[in-house]
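Progress report, Aim 2. The chain analyzed during this reporting quarter is listed below.
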Amino acid sequence: MAILIILSILAIGLILMATESLNRMNKAAVAMFVGVICWLIYIGYGTDFVVAEHQIDFLSYLSDNSVGSRSVKSFIASSIFIRYVVAGAEVVLFLLGTMTIVEVLNNNGCFDFIPEWLRTRRPLHYLWMVSGITFVISANMDNLTTACLMLGIMHSMISDSRQRLIFGSAIVISAACGGAFTVIGDVTSLALWTGGRVTPTTYSGMTILPCLAALLTILGLMSRSLPHRLALTRTVAPYRGDDTVLTRWQRLALLAVGIGGLWFIPTFHRITLLPPFVGCLCVLALLWIVNELCNRALLGSDRMVQKRLPEALQYVNIQHILLFIGLTLAFGAVNETGILTRFFDWCAVKLDSFFVIATSMGALSSVFGNVATVLANMSVCSPDVVEPHAELVPIYAPNGYFWPLISYSTAVGSLLLPAGTMAGFALMRMEGVKWRTYLSHISGKVLAGWVVGLLVYYIMVYFVY
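Predicted structure tokens for the chain:
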């Protein structure tokens, strides 16, 4: 009965999150509420779940504690719940670090070169340039942050709303593809890395070709319907947060520290074995010091206090973080009921092809979002669940073929609908993009690119590796 209640609450929450544009309920708020309620119900029936899933550990715990309902709650809080809190905190701290790094770079004008490079009247040149820059930057930073940054730059350059739909969609798609092929480029790939499902080098080697194939296919189709001439605004003022006097070399130094430091994080993790967020905090601290050295003439003056922050970028990122926390707690509660073990056993018999599972999950991610879909698969295909199935271990074990595929499939598949990703929501809010317009002009092209990327991955697995 308790399992049914928890599953029902999770299902209702996922439906509410998928229909946010209709019910006007913030999906992050729904996710957090569902996560807390699921754990409250779990604790209410805690004795049954603990005895069924953690009998040995619980008996060992009782050897030093008295028997009673309070002991059950204490065991859940200290031994079960805390694991999901730690797993979520690792990702959240990493995201907070990268978000702050981007804001420091943005406030110092380190991205002013982008409008300079994009200043052209040729639509085809603009499309490939803005997509290429977005793809590269999102591989180094969080793709949502990159999408918001590039959407703001594009909005300040293009005056026609229809053209902003095309190029804004290209930015969101490029950010998703770029973020999907590195472990630091997307919250889902970051969760796979911190959860021990993938390692950075193997993951990137498996996903870069499918991501590139999907992006090139989509951009090739989009290039066929471009306008003859870009409707550019007359002036584009570079955003620096204030009138800082940093030279170009100082901005390049800050950019090198920020981006280079992010790329060094996987190496830092491999050398020290400390969680990735520790390396991110180290990079942030170093960048902060360099920033204060470069801006020492402004320290203590009113101008440093008056620096503006990109509020839209901040809001969307914080919402993304809260969404991840809520979903982590919700799927954690479901995982602890033991129902996911039985579900995986059923999938192992009925759906013996991991390609079928990954493709289905990619389609579902367009409705429920890529974060929820990947976290659900991480819970269902956890190491404890997969271990009894010896024939499936090479597929679902760390660095198995399934994890890069599910990451790619959900990252691109979630773009089939405008509300499948937080970046898509940002596009809808910033540019007023309607569902019908997106479905008519973008979804078909995304579908073609998604299928091409899946075919590339299939060829890599069965004919190359």
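The radius of gyration is 23 Å. The CA atoms of residues 105 and 255 lie 7 Å apart. These observations will guide the mutagenesis work planned for the next reporting period.
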